[in-house]
Every structure is written in C-alpha cells, then in structure tokens.
Give the backbone structure.
Amino acid sequence: MPSTRRHALATLAALGGASLADAFAQTPQAGAAPASKRLQVLMLVHPDMTALDLVGPQLVFATMGDVDTHMVWKDLSPVTTDSGLKLVPGMTFADAPKAPDILFVPGGLKGTTALLQDEETLRFLRERGASARWVTGVCTGVLLLGAAGLLRGYRATAHWYVQDILPVFDAEPSADRVVIDRNRVTGGAVTAGIDMALTMSAMLRGDDKARTQELAFGYAPMPPFAAGTPELAGEALTKRVLESRAPAISAARRAAEMARQRWAG
Amino acid sequence: MPSTRRHALATLAALGGASLADAFAQTPQAGAAPASKRLQVLMLVHPDMTALDLVGPQLVFATMGDVDTHMVWKDLSPVTTDSGLKLVPGMTFADAPKAPDILFVPGGLKGTTALLQDEETLRFLRERGASARWVTGVCTGVLLLGAAGLLRGYRATAHWYVQDILPVFDAEPSADRVVIDRNRVTGGAVTAGIDMALTMSAMLRGDDKARTQELAFGYAPMPPFAAGTPELAGEALTKRVLESRAPAISAARRAAEMARQRWAG
C-alpha cells in the first residue's frame, strides 16, 4: 500500500472514521473549547535534551487555542539542555494530569540515552501514554516512546541516525519527516517537530488555524543549503556526521536493547 | 540595484573586501579557534519574548564550534516567554563581555514593546552593539536594535507586521527573510532566525559547517501549508491576522516613536 494512503487511513482510524477532509476542515471557531475542555499537553523536559526539539512544538501547541502546555519533569529545578540553554519545568510527574490530550517527548542523543535507562521516566511515559489521546515525539525522543512500549506495532519516524533502532521496540521505522499511525504522531530530526506540531494543529483545530500559525511565525523556511536529509547532504557528509556521532549512537542502541530486555522481566 | 547584488556588496563590505566565495569557503578546520578565541555570543532574553526566536539561533550558534553563547538579562531569575515556557538567563548585563562577537536580540511583540520603553535595556544594546563584531536580531526584536540607534542608515528586515516601523529608526526596511548590511544581520518573523543563524554559521565557519548543521538538525522543512508570508497566505488571512494584532502593533509603533524622540534628549 502506498505510504500516503496508509497514512490517510491511519489518520481516519485515529479520528474514528471521519473523513480526512472533515478533520482538516474543523475551523478554530468550531474547535473552540470551553475553559473546562482546554487541551492538556504534557511535554517532557529533561537534562541534555535538544531545546529546539521542544520549543517549536510548544509554540505551535500553545497557540492552537484552548490549550495548556505543561513542561514536566521529576522536579522543578531548571534543566540544562544540550546546547547549554536552561529551561524550567512547570510541573512534576506526580502532578501531571492522568489523561493528557497530548503527550510529547523531545530528543537529544545524550539525554535520551540516559533516560532509556531510567525506569521512573519510562514508567511515567508508559502510564500517561496509555491514557493520552495523542502520543507524540520527535528526534531521538521517539526512542523513549518505544522503550515505554508505546510503539509496538506502530509505524514511526525518528532522527535519521536512530531510525534503525526503532525495531528494537517492535516499531516499524519510517524515513518520513512526520508519521501518523492511529494516535501516534512522530517526527524526524529536531526541526521536524515544527512540521509535526503544525500537522497536529490542523487536525485538532483546522487548517485555517495552522495556516494562521505559519503566517504568524513566518514559516516559509529558506535553508541556505539544501542539506537537511542524508539524501540531500550526500554520502560523504552523511558518513562524516555518522562517524562523529558513532559512539553516542552505539550507546543509544545498547541502552535501547537493555530497555527492551527489561520488558521481559 | 537588484537586491541580491546589493546584499552581496553589503556582505563584502562587512568582510573587509574579501570575496563572497572566500567568506563561504572558510572550512571548520581553518576556522577552529584556540580556547582563548572562542566567539562570545550575547543573546538577550526577556519577559514575553518568543522563545523560538532565540532557541533556533542559539542551537546553531552553540554548535558552530568554538563558541560560548550567553543568555543575558538584568538578573538571573527565570523569564517567562510569551508561550509560557520559562528560560533561565545565564549572565547579567553587568557581567556581559564588553566587545562580544555576536549580539543577538529576539522578538515577541508584547515583550519588545515593553523594552522599547526600557532605557536600561536600550543602553545595554547601544553599548554592546557599538563594540560587537556582528549586530543581529530577528522578528520584532529588530525594533530594539533600531531603538538603540544601531540601524541608522542600515537596511534591515523584521517580522512582516512591524517592518514598516523600521523607518522610525532611520533604517531602510526590507521584506527579505534574511538581510545582511555590513555587520548588521537581521531576520524576519520567528522561524527566520534559523535561516539567519545558518547564514552566519556559513560566513563565520564555512559552508561545510552550516551544511553539517542542516543535516544534524534535519533542516529540510516541509510546512504543511504554504502560508508563511503575506504573499503566500493571501490577502484575506493576512488582513485577519493584522486585525487581530492591530492593538499590539499600534502599541509597538507608539513605543517606537517615543523611543525615537528620546534620541533628541
């Protein structure tokens, strides 16, 4: 089955059979929720995460209308991201709503690898993911969804250099930038989170809202070089980047395999 | 003169006459600095800023190699951005290097408008901007560079809904996504910061470095709708967005005009 058609069908399934056109035609007016029905979005923050993985989606989610975004972590101390930027969590795991509308997990190779070995975080993701309306993640953060058992039998994407680790968690890897499979929505490397979140905004609030967001955020990107995928960058550069990341990618794979082994126990 | 050629000449001027090809041909190897020569990047953080304005450029700057990025504000208390995300400053105005390599200012309409009336911040920008090697900003933050007198006689861009305020500060407005005029580098709305920073990465560290960053960050964007500029979004949507922002844009213009009047005093 062609991948586009499979996506469309998966989306339909997630929407309970409504047509894709219907799903995208929800206007912001029609989608406006009473205060008691504001969407609750839980976004994991953690040490050594990549801030941009989260900050693009957070802006999109926060401006969809009738949404509360919560930055969640074990405690409320600032976390230092992998580029040195410090973010402050706004809510602890213990206080996070039990049935969020959206659960979101950012990546960051070193931080992801650490959390693949952290049962407290994986348990939090497993529990909230089981009751979340949408389970989402980008970049290497998708591995954490996998380790929490949330991608078994699902098609998913991730940062291009860890996509082939997804089968460790019984997920079907995709090289697409954004993948929707039923209520799992995943994005590729770092900047793919913006496209993932805009796609969700269109699904949840209508394409008029998503178009308004693109306009407000000036989202007509012009990458100065066309090198944002291995195909575009070419073999030589891709090989060089992979080699420079090889120890970190290997460590992520080992951590993923150990996390998978703990499922049996 | 066609705008592309004017940009090229402006860039040449900024580079002291080196050819544009030379500027982009600096390899990361050639550009690698000893520890004592790490680039010092000062990035303003402030209440009601738009986090994504800063977080894209911060990731690009921080990974150019041999760079220290400093988030600067009046004090070190967390600032709450306009989407609710909290960032922690890492350095006070008082402690910021006197002659930074890059000074960067993010936007956020409400936060910018407040700072247009804040002499302490404008003085900081004026002083550091006078000695900075590169003076940069994106979105509405460009107005703060203008208010600090750093854009007099310079061509600059900004968020599309405040570009026409730039002449208040004797700057020549441009609708381009990224504008380089001598050592002033400005970007349009929110996401333009990523393109601005990658352009600077290529100038300062060579195009191989910028290509590597595009690949590592998966920067092959696929906006789900093609609505990221007024031209792409069309008149009806643009009018609606402008109307919804009209009071805030008017407030920014009034604050800009008052800031300009203080130059005389």
